[in-house]
Amino acid sequence: MAEGEMESPGAKKCGPYISSVTSQSVNLVIRGVVLFFIGVFLALVLNLLQIQRNVTLFPPDVIASIFSSAWWVPPCCGTASAVIGLLYPCIDRHLGEPHKFKREWSSVMRCVAVFVGINHASAKVDFDNNIQLSLTLAALSIGLWWSFDRSRSGFGLGVGIAFLATVVTQLLVYNGVYQYTSPDFLYVRSWLPCIFFAGGITMGNIGRQLAMYECKVIAEKSHQE
């Protein structure tokens, strides 16, 4: 009995650590799933706007969803959203620069609304030429970063995401997967990197907010224990 009583405190010491690691892994998966479905939803809605205005054209045989979007677009956007949303807080921790600017859900929702507005403008607003539209969307995208992010890591990741996503899109269009009407930047529209930049900032903000919520929950559990 004495030995059993001596071993029980050791088990209690290991318990919270194992529980913490497990809960962090579970929360990471949950955040990834939430970000994936947010990306899928935004892809369906925003791609619908582009197709209605004939900005993007898909072959008739791949129009396969109720929102008239190619079946592979939402899963790809969802996966990219999950990666971006998990990457932003990870980079913040690695750099030792926790993001504290406007960390509340109301700010995140406003950021999403502005991003949807920028995408809507790219499809609905008529300009004399694509250069004017591209410059306007670039200013709006940088304004979104300044209003809801203002971090160097956020800006750098946004630029990297815009570059990588634009290259991938160029390759998809080049191989005939789909096409843009009136392309003026090789095979795509010149304003497309602005949309990708704003999208990266938006998903990064969502990911940061989810990570902050996770930290609060873990801290509360540790305090209760």
TrEMBL record:
It comes from Heterocephalus glaber (Naked mole rat). InterPro entries: INSIG_fam. GO terms for cellular component: SREBP-SCAP-Insig complex. Keywords: Cholesterol metabolism, Endoplasmic reticulum, Lipid metabolism, Lipid-binding, Membrane, Steroid metabolism, Sterol metabolism, Thioester bond, Transmembrane, Transmembrane helix. It is found in: Endoplasmic reticulum membrane. One of its GO terms (biological process) is SREBP signaling pathway. This is Insulin-induced gene protein. GO terms for molecular function: lipid binding. It holds the Pfam family INSIG. PANTHER family: INSULIN-INDUCED GENE 1, INSULIN-INDUCED GENE 2 PROTEIN. Mediates feedback control of cholesterol synthesis. The keyword Protease does not apply. Its main location: endoplasmic reticulum. Interacts with SCAP; interaction is direct and only takes place in the presence of sterols; it prevents interaction between SCAP and the coat protein complex II (COPII). Associates with the SCAP-SREBP complex (composed of SCAP and SREBF1/SREBP1 or SREBF2/SREBP2); association is mediated via its interaction with SCAP and only takes place in the presence of sterols. Interacts with RNF139. Interacts with RNF145. It is a multi-pass membrane protein. The chain crosses the membrane at residues 28-49, 69-88, 131-148, 155-174, 186-206.
